[in-house]
Task: structure prediction
Amino acid sequence: MILSYRWRTAKRPRPDRKLLTAAMLRAAECCFLPLEREWGLEVDFVGDRAMTRANAELVGHEGTTDVITLSYFDSDEPVFDGDTAIELIVCVDAAIREGATRPEGYAGELMLYLVHGLLHSSGEDDLTDEAARSMRRRESEVLDELRKTFDFSAIFPE
Result:
């Protein structure tokens, strides 16, 4: 997996590239994504305004959201080595707001959004109550595994 990201907000410092890359590789492994090939993961960290635009243009929904996942693994076209297979758009403003109410704060919230997006890319969905419960369980499992190795606040400093 080849990670590239764009940090499009000045509200928080940029993430630690080395730690973020390592954590995302481990998360992709825990989400059972195919790591036998070199596919690309692109992450765009944005604020509310950019997320609202993306949500309208890409999903057809109004307002902001936490993460949008575009996965090309289930496309009619094959994913070749070097191709972008997953694009995640992550809302930093949402993580700041939601993180203020959660024990792991902003950094834990960003990791949750990244894991959520990867789980969608691996075929999980949260469209029904049962599927949502399964998604929450898988999120917890993957985040618990990541916590064994990574300090989320070192990846995403405040």
About this structure: Residues 2-155 form a domain with the Collagenase (Catalytic Domain) fold (CATH 3.40.390.30). The chain has a mean pLDDT of 96. The chain has one domain: 2-155. Residues 129-147 form the longest helix (19 residues).
